[in-house]
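Students often ask why we bother encoding 3D structure as a string. The short answer is that it lets us treat folding as translation between two languages. Here is a chain of 160 residues written in the first language.
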Amino acid sequence: MRRACEPRSGQGGLGLTSRLVLQNIGPVGNPGMPEAGYIPIPKKLAQAGVKDMLRISDGRMSGTASGAVVLHLAPEASIGGPLAVVRDGDRIRLNVETRQLDLLISGEEMATRLEQWRASTATAELEAKKKVRGYKGLYRRSVLQADKGADFDFLTAEGC
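And here it is in the second language, the structure alphabet:
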């Protein structure tokens, strides 16, 4: 993990057109989906007068926070949603009117990255977590994504 204030190799770090992305804090990635999604403006940019920038996450944040944020992305990064394969330097486009968020990479690149993600240790860790017993295991196996309310799948009308 890299701190936001550290420059990316060969890319000069954060700038005025940067977007901040926080991954793996959705219902599965951070069980219970706590309000951990607040991403403050990095100190270097705040000192330069930046008051807001687009922040994107699969988690949630307090209603008292403000600014340009896109939260509750689903499917979340920890289960292989597109957010899982966002890399430093990727371009991201947000269209508020059409409610569309696009990672500006080719379909082929997206497929390659998702395949690499599936083959990674993250997938093995997710499979191991599915074998956990008790409430923790029940939660991991049954929790719905944020767009479905982060509830247990067997508590929905369709789950009956």
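Translate back mentally: Strands lie at 20-22, 55-57, 69-70, 92-95, 100-103. Keep this in mind for the problem set.
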